[in-house]
Amino acid sequence: MEGLKHLLPDPKYLGVILIIVFVTSVTVFSVNGSLFDINGNGKPGVVITFDDNYVSDWYAIRDMLKKYDAKVTFMVSGFDDLNTSDIEKLKDLRKDGHEIGCHGLDHVHADCYLANNTIEEYLDAEILSAIGAMNKKGFFPRSFAYPYGSHSSQTDAALLKYFKRLRVTTGSNIDNIKDANEAYYKFNGDRVVASVCIDDSEDITTEEILEGLQRAKEHNETVIFFTHQPINYTVDNSTEKVISYERLEAVLKYAHDNNLTFYRMSDLY
Ligand SMILES: [Zn+2]
Q: What's the main place this protein lives (predicted)?
């Protein structure tokens, strides 16, 4: 018994230990039937992801993101092609509180690739090589966005061993953002989540995007958006994967002013 005593906490610290245990484990409570934790999970919000590798253009919106207290996720493809300056910029963005996720090494279309290759080859060439390139520069991605949204239950099962969350897309044939049900996360623990494109090139107006945010707010959901390259001018009927500052700022402002939480991809439980 004498030996056991050493394993037990000193009674005078017991109160403090109990408080720590309580605060760290009992962080979930119910308000109006919704589950919250101390990080705000469960509150309505938005996930904004930027894909590919427009690192300098992402870096240029740092101040805009700060202005609205926005935290976003950058999904990087072609990580092995980034130069030293790009890597430093990504580190600064991470320091600002943004997440750096993975978008594949060569941005391959999973279905097409797997038509002629095995899942092991896909993992080696596209996923593990991308994770390795990121690790080498001090990045440890927790989220993955499928290029072109192309995936299957086979790729999901393989990738979920390496990532907390996988992002797919709703496809481009949606009539209205507020009706793109799959892109609204309901805090149900899904690890494969869909997202809807808010590029200027999509046939979607900024007003429709704001209606999507309004839906998230009213229904206690988190809407997941993806876009690509922020640009400081507007273009009509663009075929490029761009989002104008005007549109981006309208989205950030609406979310901020309506108390939506800016979740990073891996924040969602
Ligand atoms: Zn992409």
A: secreted
